[in-house]
Design goal:
Structural class: alpha+beta
CATH architecture of the largest domain: 2-Layer Sandwich
Strand content: 25-35%
Oligomer: single chain
Number of domains: 2
CATH superfamily of the largest domain: Pseudouridine synthase I, catalytic domain, C-terminal subdomain
Number of strands: 10
Largest sheet: 10 strands, mixed
CATH class of the largest domain: Alpha Beta
Radius of gyration: 20 Å
Number of helices: 5
Helix content: 10-25%
Length: 252
C-alpha cells in the first residue's frame, strides 16, 4: 500500500526565460519545468502548487511550493534527484515533509518582494536582475512616493487591466529603500500579505516617474488612486527588476 505524502519546497528561479510561474500549454513556465523534471526523474506525474503566481520575467529566491507524492524516498534524496534534472535556472533550496493539510495559499502572514533599480549602467552579468533607469532621479521624492502606498488602499488603479477581481483593497505593511554600493543599485523592499497582478511594478514605475518628472508630484498619485482606474499614463516598471524574496507564514 502506497502512502501519499505532502512536501513543502522553497524554490529559487531566474524568471528571464519563463512566462511566469503558472503552467501553460504552449509556453515555458516555472511550474511546468518542475512538473516535467519530476516526470523525467521519477516517471510519475505531479502538479506543483506555488504560493505566488509570479509574472513573466519575475525572479524568486523564496517561492513556496506544495507537492504531493507517494515516492518512497527521504526528502534529502528526493530533492537531490529532482534538482539534478532541473534546468540551471531553477533550484529547489529545501524540501521537507509537512502535514497533509498544508496549503501554500493559506496562513500567509506576509510576503517580501525586492525591486532592484540601477541608476548607472550595470555589469552584464547582473543587468537581467534589475531595471536600468537612465534618467535623473530625486531619491527623496522617490522615497515619499513609495511611502504613499504604505497602508490599506483600494489599488484598482495600480493593477493590471487584465486583473478583473472585485476585491482590490490591499495592505502594504512597509516599503523601505536601501542602496547597494557594490552594484550601485537601489533595492526597494515591499512587505505585504497579498498583491494584485502587476501591482508592485505599477507602484514602482509610478514612483520613478514622480521622482524624475517635474510635471508630476505625490499629489498625482493621490488623484490616480482615487479614480480606481488602471487606464492611466503612469508607467509600469519592467519585470526583470522584481524578485520574490521570502514568504512568512503564521505559526499556531
Amino acid at each position: 500500500m502506497t502512502i501519499m505524502k505532502t512536501y513543502k519546497l522553497i524554490v529559487s528561479y531566474d524568471g528571464s526565460d519563463y512566462y511566469g510561474w503558472q503552467a501553460q500549454t504552449h509556453r515555458p513556465s516555472v511550474a511546468s519545468a518542475l512538473n516535467n523534471a519530476f516526470k523525467r526523474a521519477f516517471k510519475k506525474e505531479i502538479s506543483v502548487l506555488g504560493a505566488s503566481r509570479t509574472d513573466a520575467g519575475v525572479h524568486a529566491l523564496g517561492q513556496v511550493v506544495r507537492v504531493k507524492t507517494d515516492l518512497p524516498m527521504t526528502p534529502e534524496k528526493l530533492r537531490w534527484a529532482w534538482n539534478n534534472v532541473l534546468p540551471p535556472s531553477i533550484m529547489i533550496r529545501s524540501l521537507q515533509l509537512v502535514e497533509d493539510s498544508f496549503n501554500p495559499f493559506c496562513s500567509v502572514l506576509y510576503k517580501i518582494y525586492y525591486y532592484h533599480i540601477f541608476l548607472e549602467r550595470p555589469l552584464p552579468f547582473v543587468q537581467q536582475y534589475g531595471y536600468y533607469y537612465p534618467y535623473p532621479l530625486d531619491i527623496q521624492v522617490f522615497k515619499k512616493a513609495l511611502h504613499f502606498f504604505v497602508g490599506t488602499h483600494d489599488f484598482s488603479s495600480f493593477r493590471s487591466s487584465e486583473d478583473v477581481r472585485e476585491d482590490t483593497v490591499r495592505t502594504i505593511d512597509a516599503i523601505t529603500l536601501e542602496y547597494n554600493r557594490r552594484y550601485k543599485m537601489y533595492r526597494v523592499i515591499i512587505k505585504g500579505q497579498k498583491f494584485l497582478r502587476h501591482m508592485i511594478r505599477r507602484m514602482i514605475g509610478a514612483s520613478l516617474a514622480i521622482a524624475s518628472r517635474p510635471d508630476l508630484s505625490v499629489k498625482t498619485l493621490e488623484i490616480v488612486m482615487k479614480k480606481c482606474n488602471p487606464s492611466h499614463t503612469l508607467p509600469n516598471a519592467p519585470a526583470q527588476g522584481l524578485l520574490l524574496y521570502k514568504i512568512i507564514y503564521r505559526t499556531t
